Q: What sequence folds into this?
């Protein structure tokens, strides 16, 4: 996969294809904005998910936004809450970024949820484990959605 950034710079998707979470997140942003690649919410979600599954907080936050608004995926407040909550925890742990946006987004989504939905989202947060992507084909990795009982 190769693309061209606006302004003519070449970009090779090798890092994203090889499982580098930051590169996967950046590719998701590119697809979400249509920068250098055709705009596609579905492709943006695919790349955010690959990075989010590895614990990349920015991708977790962006994936929460996609679930909250039903962009590239069906709207799902439970999954939006889960990804926002994971992002807020990651941002706090990294101390590099402010966790308040993710926490505010989580709380905004929670205001639209039933107590049972919030409990389910919290269960998913507790059960979440990072998935390391080295050597995992993207299609196989994306197919691993959280199982809700």
A:
């Amino acid at each position: 996969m190769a693309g061209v950034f606006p302004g003519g710079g070449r970009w090779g998707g090798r890092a994203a294809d090889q499982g580098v979470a930051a590169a996967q997140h950046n590719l998701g942003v590119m697809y979400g904005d249509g920068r250098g690649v055709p705009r596609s919410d579905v492709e943006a979600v695919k790349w955010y998910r690959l990075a989010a599954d590895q614990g990349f907080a920015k991708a977790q936050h962006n994936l929460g936004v996609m679930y909250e608004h039903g962009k590239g995926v069906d709207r799902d407040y439970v999954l939006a809450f889960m990804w926002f909550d994971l992002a807020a925890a990651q941002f706090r742990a990294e101390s590099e970024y402010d966790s308040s946006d993710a926490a505010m987004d989580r709380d905004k989504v929670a205001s639209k949820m039933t107590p049972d939905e919030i409990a389910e989202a919290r269960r998913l947060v507790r059960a979440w484990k990072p998935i390391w992507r080295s050597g995992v084909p993207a299609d196989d990795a994306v197919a691993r959605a959280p199982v809700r009982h």
